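User: Run a structure prediction on this.
Assistant: Running it now.
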Amino acid sequence: MTTIEIRAERELFERLYRSYHRQLLRFLGRMTRCPERAEDLAQAAWLKLLQARTRGMCTCANDAELRAYLFTVARNAFLDEYTRKHESLRSRPTEPAQLEALAMRQEGSPGPEQELELGETQAFVAFALRRLPPEQRRVIGLWMMGTSIKEMAATCGAPTDTVLSRKKYALARLRRSLAEGVGVLA
């Protein structure tokens, strides 16, 4: 570049700066909601414009095209920064052992929906168990632990036929409660 071209480029840049710097700051201020950040991004945009003009990468002919170029560079700088800043929030480091564990996980293992459904079912069964009379609830609890009928009778202090009867009526009540559905929980 000749001295005349350099002077013309400097005058063009100074005129652009006077004309568009405040607009650029307002534009970036609305995006960043931080005046200091907007100032930093504006400075980066002006430097990129200067570098592009020096290398001949920006061949815009008039002020309107240069303004459009400048605002596009500023917007892209904001988006680059925003993406970098929020990428760390959206991703988390994972150890190789965790990746291997995920890869080894069987396809039949429950996903989030199945786990939620299982939790709801368990809550519903627990609710149905709480609705049983205490003697029946105790017999069902012992039966769920794998206790034999004779041991249940001894623990409850009742004859084996009474324990069998409590178990039978408790299971019938549980079946009815489960058949009634989720409305019982509400």
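Residues 58 and 177 are 75 Å apart (CA to CA).
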